[in-house]
Amino acid sequence: MARKKQVRTPVARQANTSAAYTTEFHHEFRVETSRLLLRRFLWFTAVVAVFGLVSLVAGPIATMQIEPSAATGESDPVASLRGPLPWIFSGIWLAVYAAAFGYAWRVKPAEAVVLRLSFWIVTFDGLMNLVITAIGVQGTMGLGGFFITHMLACLFMPWSAWQALRPMIAVLSVNALVVLFILHPVWKGEMTPASWAGLISSPLLAVPGTLWCWTRHSKRVKDFRFKFVNSKYSEMRRELVDARRIHESLFPETIDSGPVRFSFEYEPMRQIGGDFLYSHRRTSDDGAEHSPLSIVLLDVTGHGIPAALTVNRLHGELERIFAEMPDIGPGEVLRLLNRYVHLTLATHSIYVTGMCLRMDCEAGEVEYASGGHPPAFLRAVDGTIEELPSTSFVLGACPDEAFDSGPRTLAFGPGDTILAYTDGAIEARNDSGKMLRIDGIRRMVASADSRRPNTWPGIFKDEVIGFRGGAPPEDDTLILALHHSVGHASRGKASDNADTPESVRT
Fold first, then answer.
1. Looking at the predicted structure, is the pLDDT value of residue 488 above 70?
2. Start-end of H helices in 382-436
3. Is pLDDT at 10 greater than 60 in this prediction?
4. Long-range contact list for 489-495, CB < 8 A, 24+ apart?
């Protein structure tokens, strides 16, 4: 069975883009958290170790004395151990924190290791307090001491709420077992109302630290997201500046001398866009001025970076077409472009409107083909205006065998000018929402100064911007003026060197 080609829908592409963005955000957030976690862990263990050292040195020496048993008058072995136990446990406690600090300082472990280490050292602290309380060592705070350590850890460590809650769950679970089965055995009925109240209320010890970690973590995520988006926006702006320079380098140089001259103005909706202009002139043995000039005007669906990437692909295809067939006509150019778009871009819902013109000054004519493109206008030297409508479908809408470019040939003599544009010009809206439309462009062409056709694109672009009231464009706009100079007549005919609007075609 033939394997079907998988088509990625716009929703799937958007989901993949969002996933990539989320992955990058989480990666950078984890990198920053890892650095912060190690630094804060060192501070936490150092501060607690210093407090422990002070407590160890300042502990009451009297607790080391052995007291006789009140019942027998003899020394009690357990009671005799209770004297030095505070120092013993304090020494163990201090050694654990000092070892943790030294390990983190030397090894610089990864984030996951530091998290596990912080969990176990705080849990150890709580279990140590429970053991001391269970064996009856005097002068200890029990869960109160663990609460202080846990709160200090929450203040220092960049924990999430769940990470702050885990040591509490472990220690409070052990505490419940100690209370129910060792200190006040429940099967003996030794649990008093006060004991039950203390056991039931013990989970409240987790609330302050967990709430603090949740609030701080949420704020840190929010602040980092703002910083992340801002940095990515600045990075993208810098990349778009470079991309626009590269993108616009694909556009041809204007021609302001010779028999055929053209100029254009381009205003992308964003930094870069999907409108494109391509020109090609075959170098002839007797000079390039009289060789036919081909112009291709394209408008890709969409805006911004995706459309600009599509333009880059189309530019490469046009380079190939004209390199292999320098004398190719507009109809065949459009057919090959339609085939390329249909096979490679239409599967991604990308289509192109295009217009291809080929000016032959020796023959005094222009051949053109238009695939779904807005109509161009040919203004003759005598002021008459002829519309150049679309001759075929939008490129990519139908397969090669069903596409007919329908090229047409028109007279294009000295003094004639062709004005072509993309739909961003005719779809410009004024403050009341009214579009400029094709009639608006026709009026501009009719009233334009025929003595300076090379200024038409700039003037028309300013008029379009004025019609919008200076508002940002809602689509890419490209305006092209193509002019047959009056001072260069067709071969075999007299050449009129006076480049004036009163010159008439021979």
1. no
2. 423-426
3. no
4. 489/414, 490/361, 490/362, 490/363, 490/364, 490/413, 491/290, 491/362
CB atoms within 10 A of CB 356: 27
Tell me which of 193 and 13 has the higher pLDDT.
193
Per-residue b/e over 486-506, b at no fewer than 16 CB within 10 Å? bbbbbeeeeebeeeeeebebe
pLDDT of residue 391: 95
Q: Flag the least confident range among 61-75, 284-298, 371-385, 431-445.
A: 61-75
CB 487, CB 496: distance < 8 Å? yes
What are the structure tokens assigned to 297, written together?
């005007």
Q: Which two tokens stand for residue 101?
A: 């600090």
Q: Are residues 78 and 188 in the same domain?
A: yes
List beta partners, residue 281.
Answer: 293
Whether the CB-CB separation of 396 and 343 falls below 8 Å is answered with: no
405 close to 371: Cβ distance less than 8 angstroms:
yes
CA-based nearest residue to 275, from 249, 307, 243, 319 = 307
Number of domains, the chain: 2
224 and 357 within one domain:
no
The Cα 480–Cα 420 span in angstroms is 5
Cβ distance 466 to 431 under 8 Å?
no
Query: 150 to each of 65, 120, 122, 358, how far by Cα in Å?
Result: 32, 12, 7, 80
Boundaries of domain holding 427:
252-484
Contact indicator for 83, 65 with CB cutoff of 8 Å: yes
Higher-confidence residue of 74 and 307: namely 307
Residue 401, Cβ neighbours under 10 Å: how many? Answer: 7
pLDDT at 290: 65
For the chain, helix, strand, coil in percent to 5 are 55, 15, 30
CA 263, CA 463: separation in Å to the nearest integer?
17
Query: What single-letter DSSP state applies at residue 433?
Result: S
What is the pLDDT, as a whole number, of residue 52?
Answer: 74
Is position 170 within any domain?
A: yes
Residue 496 clears pLDDT 60, i.e. is over it: no
Asked if 395 contacts 415 with a C-beta cutoff of 8 angstroms, the reply is no
Tokens, residue 413: 């003599």
Are the beta carbons of 482 and 357 closer than 8 angstroms? yes
Q: Which ranges constitute the DSSP H helices of 179-296? A: 193-201, 206-248
CATH number of residue 319's parent domain: 3.60.40.10
- Alpha-carbon distance of 130 to 148, in angstroms, equals 14
In terms of DSSP H, where are the helices of 273-375?
Answer: 304-324, 330-344
**Residues 259, 220 within the same domain:** no
The verdict on 19 and 155 lying in the same domain is yes
Counting Cα atoms < 13 Å in the Cβ hemisphere of 450 gives 24
**Which carries the bigger pLDDT value, residue 51 or residue 225?**
225
